[in-house]
């Protein structure tokens, strides 16, 4: 069932019809399509392009249809070409010829552009809510673990002691940037394409500012060709979601490592773990692995759609219908992962003792030992060399630095005194680091207070 056909003498080939049809996926934004039509009809009525009676009848019937779609008493008939045809036909079935006036001064090109924008605005809000929840979860972990010492890594080798609050604070910053990217995208895309027509605007005296206003936009987009062919904001959002997924994937990867028998830094809750069909002892971090794995499909949607758009001449081309399926999938994937990651973190146990033990071994205090010498007047480069020798010696004795006797220290350099033990104690290593952004307890508390302020605005 088509909205067109007048200039055709033969029916569409069935395969062509099926290939071309989009209702199976554009029914996703049925609500936005109907709301967009209600806005359009209000404007047509205000401009006296439709009479009051016509406008009121169409609006009332569209609201009924919206209601029925929302409470699922009206089934969307997938034999229609797209959601726009289904809604318009349903309207005409109910009110006859008056319904045929709805599409006055409008094309499916500006209609679909409007639907996608309305839909995307709703989706950005949902993503935002989920991101804020994740940020709040991380914030709670940070507050609880200002004193939880763990090793920080570079090259996945133990580097220097930090705290769990500090480590999670890095993710707080990443997700905070993700949140601000959402905000920026929303600001840039918040312009209404309705009234662009097929590409050239229309001859009717449409009030585009009014339509934009009642549909909740900042204003109308200023070029009708761009109005129907701009999909930049989808690419921006796919890119922002890819970055979110990348951040979630990095944290998931760390949780997988931390959950291993070798590390035992965390225990994933039973409710967020899965078992093996053959190995009875297994408790697997499948959710972390799936978040890491699903990152690929969101990147895929971004690359796919960038490629779709790259050669398109202005204005509308049917290629653009390909903006939907992978985009919807990317949105569902990202929203699902945000929710699961947040809930999983809430239920995770952090094993403070194991973390601290790990931070204490493996020469994580070697930099602080060098700094100790610097404080006693040794130039840093020389201090670095001395501690290098000390580490080599300690490895040969199968000891950590703080297990060496003062005599052993002095054999390498007589600058060492008894106060070295205090200086290289893991607690000292952490808490002496109090410059902005560092892991020391005092600084962490300041950052947590700033984060608390930031979260208050939501
Ligand atoms: N299903 C189409 C899309 O998603 C709607 C616009 C159709 N416009 C057209 N001129 N065929 O892009």
From TrEMBL:
Its EC number is 4.3.2.1. One of its GO terms (molecular function) is argininosuccinate lyase activity. It catalyses: 2-(N(omega)-L-arginino)succinate = fumarate + L-arginine. Residues 6-300 form the Fumarate lyase N-terminal domain. GO terms for biological process: L-arginine biosynthetic process via ornithine. Its main location: cytoplasm. Residues 363-431 form the Argininosuccinate lyase C-terminal domain. It is found in: Cytoplasm. The keyword Lyase applies. One of its GO terms (cellular component) is cytosol. It comes from the Bacteria. Coiled coil: none annotated. Keywords: Amino-acid biosynthesis, Arginine biosynthesis, Cytoplasm, Lyase. Pathway: Amino-acid biosynthesis; L-arginine biosynthesis; L-arginine from L-ornithine and carbamoyl phosphate: step 3/3. Belongs to the lyase 1 family. Argininosuccinate lyase subfamily. This is Argininosuccinate lyase. It comes from Faecalibacillus faecis.
